[in-house]
Amino acid sequence: MAKIIVVTSGKGGVGKTTTSASFATGLALRGHKTVVIDFDVGLRNLDLIMGCERRVVYDFVNVINNEATLNQALIKDKRVESLYVLPASQTRDKDALHKEGVERVLEELKQSFDYIICDSPAGIERGAMMAMYFADEALVVTNPEVSSVRDSDRILGILASKSRRAEQAEEPVREHLVLTRYSPERVEKGDMLSVDDVMEILAIPLLGVIPESSAVLQSSNSGVPVVLDEQADAGIAYADLVARFLGEERSHRFLSVERKGFFKRLFGN
Amino acid sequence: MGFFDYFRSSRHKDNTAAVAKERLQIIVAHERGANRRHSPDYLPALKRELLEVVRRYVQVEQDQIKVHLDRDGDFEVLELNILLPDDESARVTVTTPSAPKPAR
């Protein structure tokens, strides 16, 4: 059964697209047929991060409007087998995404994919609501910083009340915390919220901590999802995150030594 | 005096993370109370029915009734605010036999 996973955050610039790209690529690397959809209509960027910007012919909105078939719009990744990208449209039409159209496309994708990753735009406007609405699970991308944590909490509230699962009184959307741009040194100095601070406030299970890393900018520069960089700390952290998502047990790396011990006690079983 | 001291004392330069956590805990708890998981879903229905009852006696508009639920420590306060028109003619003559006659 295909799973729909939204990557969301509320606040912009925290790493949603970076996370979507690496999460989808990581799942595909592990042999799962995966598609990643850009919901940021008008401001598409997932194509750049995935390095397929010059291969975009048709987009998500074309498929919704029956101007192209899914097969025409899906871009097959050149590096990883069984990985596809569905780019967003650059239209300025705010009503381009509607529930019926999005549902139809998702249902069609469900027939042939294992995982459907929805890269949400920032904010709580239509694109973000559409990305969240059909989700089975959610990766809530958060920076250890006040405005990001507050917005994440708002998003959790929306997932709990406005998603299809909430509306139809089904089992709630499964939430995962992804803490990005984490700097153990600054945490130690008391300049940054720690993992356990953020977890205490948001009260959802931690899927992964991605350290602040120069590799993230370098990989976006070259259009290669950072998870493919096996030498980089952030790449390794994303690979761990994917493994954890698939049910493997992996201890959290790139936290301070003391905190690592703490988390082992907390999550290590 | 005390007002500024409060900010100075809570913003020790060496642990702004603790300040961030404290501020977040307060604002997040507040916002959850207002519009999240804990907000009871019967409020809109309650508001509608209250308005119906009031309208049997007095003609009030939809926006003249305010229902507000507040959390204060361990207990909750349901605040109901109905703005009655001062115009006598707005009173509705009650026709239901069991209902009391409108007060003069």
Termini distance of chain B? 56 Å
Provide the gyration radius of chain A in Å. 18 Å
The helix count of chain B comes to 3
Shape call of chain A: globular
Q: End-to-end distance of chain A, in Å?
A: 28 Å
Kindly state the mean pLDDT of chain A as a whole number?
94
User: Which parts of chain B are unreliable, with pLDDT below 50 for 5 consecutive residues or more?
Assistant: 96-101
How does this structure look, described?
- The complex is a heterodimer of chains A (269) and B (104).
- The longest helix of chain A is centred in the middle third of the chain and has 17 residues, at 146-162.
- The model of chain A has no long low-confidence stretch (mean pLDDT 94).
- Chain A starts with a strand and ends with a helix.
- Chain A has helices at residues 16-29, 46-50, 60-64, 70-73, 99-112, 126-133, 146-162, 164-167, 184-188, 195-202, 214-222, 233-245, 257-267, and strands spanning 3-8, 34-38, 75-76, 83-86, 115-119, 137-142, 174-182, 206-211.
- An eight-stranded mixed beta sheet of chain A has the order 3-4-2-5-1-6-7-8, with helices on both faces.
- The relative contact order of chain A is 0.17.
- Chain A is an alpha/beta fold.
- Chain A contains 13 helices and eight strands.
- The radius of gyration of chain B is 23 Å and the shape is elongated.
- Chain B is an alpha+beta fold.
- Chain B has helices spanning 2-10, 16-35, 43-55; strands spanning 65-72, 75-82.
- Residues 96-101 of chain B have low confidence and may be disordered.
- In chain B, strands 1-2 form a two-stranded antiparallel ribbon.
- The A-B interface holds A 145-146, 149-150, 153-154, 156-157, 160-161, 187, 189-194, 197, 200-201 and B 14-18, 20-21, 23-25, 27-28, 31-32, 35-37.
